[in-house]
Amino acid sequence: MRTVFWVAGFIFVLDQLTKYYVVHVLNLREVLAIDVIPPLLNLRMAWNYGINFGILADQGDTTRWILISVALVISGAVLWWVRHDPSGRWQEIAAGLLVGGALGNVIDRLTYGAVADFLNMSCCGFDNPFSFNVADISIFIGAFGMVIFSSDKKAA
């Protein structure tokens, strides 16, 4: 379980540092857009009040607290799962990615009222209108890894 907490802590700190730097130091909240390596990597400020792709974003403050609660419950469930069904270091890394990312987005919802998304990538004629952050990447990879690296104890 130590690996889970180290990875979660690292991802949480990395996520919060990148968000602080982009929102406050680069002032992306007012500048709104910075081209880094167009179109492959751009910074585009987006405040996500809902879930993925802004779904449920117009549902108000109740949605914010529901999403905070869901993220905390999922984080707790993942920690319980890893503790009671240990499947090795890769599963622990995946769990840490998921938990660290989820907690990073929870802090955003508590601090800003929304998740600070800022990474935008497009390629090959496809113009991606959506932004994401380090936490989102970690949650995606962590959830995928939890499925891939979990043990299957079913009898054949």
Account of the 3D structure:
The protein is α+β, with helices and mostly antiparallel strands. The chain has one domain (2-149). The chain is 58% helix and 12% strand. The chain is built from five helices and three strands; from the N terminus they run ααββααβα. A three-stranded antiparallel beta sheet has the order 1-2-3. Helix 1 packs parallel to helix 4. It is globular, with a radius of gyration of 17 Å. The model has no long low-confidence stretch (mean pLDDT 90).
Condensed summary:
The chain is α+β, with helices and mostly antiparallel strands. It contains 5 helices and 3 strands.
Show the helix and strand layout.
Elements: H1 2-25, H2 28-31, E1 33-37, E2 41-48, H3 61-84, H4 89-111, E3 115-120, H5 134-149
Antiparallel strand pairs: 1-2, 2-3
Helix pairs in contact: 1-4, 3-4, 4-5
